[in-house]
TrEMBL record:
Species of provenance: Cladorrhinum samala
Key words of the record: NADP, Oxidoreductase
Protein name (record): 3-oxoacyl-[acyl-carrier-protein] reductase
EC assignment: 1.1.1.100
SMART domains: PKS_KR (SM00822)
Highest taxon listed in the record's lineage: Eukaryota
A Pfam cross-reference name: adh_short
């Protein structure tokens, strides 16, 4: 899909790429969907700011982009710390010679439990990372979006089918992901009329990432010294029945590249009249 988008760009007279000259902050871009967003955005001419809590992974993504002829800057740090959000915006603006054009609020992970067993720590951490952090980042970057210079600016919030439809065992994640849908609509209504800022949400279904891999693989994140296991238990996957991905019409999960391609499409001028919308990228799930 990403190659096709590039072909369309060239055909529509974007010889330097759909995002040529634009500065994009992509959170959680040290791996997975975020890293693919960084790569695809850079391929389309964007100057990409790679934000991730894992410094080596962030620098690796940025280095690969630079070695391929693109422009990228790694700014690692913890988005749950207000000081880092200020640093991220400041360095992005410096990298962009005083301008920022795109924010992709992608960073996050899951910390699941049924409602009656969910702790305050689980609730507060997931709400903070998936809802409060995008708000604080957008607020900090407001001076670079509330401008009238004729250049395109837009914000893409990453949500999930859990935020659109709810999901058992994910009350915290579902509420947080529903929240960023409302945030995007509000940005579109507040900053669209005077400044032309677009804001949309991309809601993913089952995408192949560490969050949907077998939990037994051992992926984890650390929260205040506590290891949080990521993924879906293999037993739970098998309980879905003998036909894999029966609830997905395409009968397969999406890839990180397919997910990132959808984000690129929404952020690009191909979607210049789309704002305040939630685009589901699910392989047909939940239709």
């Amino acid at each position: 899909m990403s190659e096709r988008i590039g072909q369309i760009a060239r055909h529509l007279n974007y010889p330097k790429g759909l995002l040529a000259g634009q500065v994009a902050i992509i959170t959680g871009s040290g791996q997975g969907i975020g890293a693919e967003c960084a790569r695809l955005f850079a391929n389309e001419g964007a100057k990409v700011v790679v934000s991730d809590i894992d410094g080596p992974k962030a620098e690796e993504v940025a280095s690969k982009i630079r070695s391929s002829g693109g422009e990228a800057l790694a700014v690692p740090g913890d988005l749950l710390k207000d000081g880092y959000i200020k640093e991220l915006v400041r360095k992005a603006a410096e990298f962009g010679n005083g301008k920022i054009h795109i924010i992709v609020n992608n960073a996050g992970f899951t910390w699941d439990a049924v409602i009656h067993k969910m702790t305050d720590k689980q609730w507060d951490t997931i709400l903070s990372l998936h809802s409060t952090v995008p708000f604080k980042l957008v607020r900090e970057a407001a001076p670079y979006f509330r401008v009238k210079d004729g250049e395109p600016r837009n914000i893409v919030n990453i949500s999930s089918t859990s935020g659109v439809h709810g999901n058992a065992g994910q009350a915290n994640y579902a509420m947080a992901k529903a929240g960023v849908i409302g945030l995007a609509k509000t940005i579109a209504k507040e900053w669209g009329p005077s400044f032309g800022v677009r804001a949309n949400t991309v809601a993913f279904g089952h995408i192949e990432t560490r969050l949907t891999a077998n939990k037994e693989a051992g992926a984890f994140v650390e929260v205040d010294g506590q290891k949080v296991a990521l993924g879906i238990p293999e037993k739970q996957k098998k309980s879905a029945g003998p036909v894999p991905y029966l609830d997905i019409p395409l009968r397969r999960p999406g890839t990180a590249t397919e997910a990132a391609s959808a984000v690129l499409a929404v952020a690009s001028p191909l979607s210049s009249y789309i704002s305040g919308q939630t685009i589901s990228v699910t392989g047909g799930r939940n239709i």
